[in-house]
Amino acid sequence: MSLTIGQEAPDFTSKDQHGNPITLSEFRGKKVVLYFYPKDSTPGCTAQACNLRDHHQELTDAGYVVLGISPDSEKRHQNFINKNELPFTLISDEDKSVHELYGTWQLKKFMGKEYMGTVRTTFIIDEQGNIENIIEKVKTKDHTAQIL
């Protein structure tokens, strides 16, 4: 499935780092940064999360809610948040159902091996729940600038 700018963002319900249900549509009226990333506590994912953390006030001032999502467990997310003092919610998608909805679970190649994995992608969703922008070439150390 390939999503396009202007299209309604697929709604979903999953669990946050505390195990509480979280639904995309509950953020209607706010702009959402929904960023898909491969794995907690890896160098690129940590750089990306810390960039969003360091500029969180700017994003909040611009009206954005930041939601990170990966196939990691709730417990792993909580550890990642605690270790890096992340001020935003991380969503657990262990069954990859949200990844499937957004087309971010794909065949990848690394060092000659093929495997299924998360394609690092950020969806900017407007107040009406429509996709305003899709960032496919994410710069992990400068991601906030790409969003703003």
From TrEMBL:
* Sorted UniProt keywords: Antioxidant, Disulfide bond, Oxidoreductase, Peroxidase, Redox-active center
Q: Which GO terms describe its biological process?
A: cell redox homeostasis; cellular response to oxidative stress
Q: Which segments constitute the Thioredoxin domain? A: 3-148
Record EC number: 1.11.1.24
The family database entries (Gene3D superfamilies) matched by this protein are listed as: Glutaredoxin (3.40.30.10)
Q: Where does the record place the region Disordered?
A: 1-20
Q: Which reaction does it catalyse?
A: a hydroperoxide + [thioredoxin]-dithiol = an alcohol + [thioredoxin]-disulfide + H2O
Please, which domain of life does this record's source organism belong to?
A: Bacteria
Molecular function terms in GO for this entry? thioredoxin peroxidase activity
Catalytic residues in the record: 45
Q: Does this UniProt record's set of keywords contain Disulfide bond?
A: yes
Q: Which GO terms describe its cellular component?
A: cytoplasm
Described purpose of this protein according to its UniProt entry: Thiol-specific peroxidase that catalyzes the reduction of hydrogen peroxide and organic hydroperoxides to water and alcohols, respectively. Plays a role in cell protection against oxidative stress by detoxifying peroxides and as sensor of hydrogen peroxide-mediated signaling events.
Q: Which family does it belong to?
A: Belongs to the peroxiredoxin family. BCP/PrxQ subfamily.
Q: How does it assemble?
A: Monomer.
In Swiss-Prot or TrEMBL terms, this protein is called thioredoxin-dependent peroxiredoxin
Q: Which organism is it from?
A: Marinomonas communis
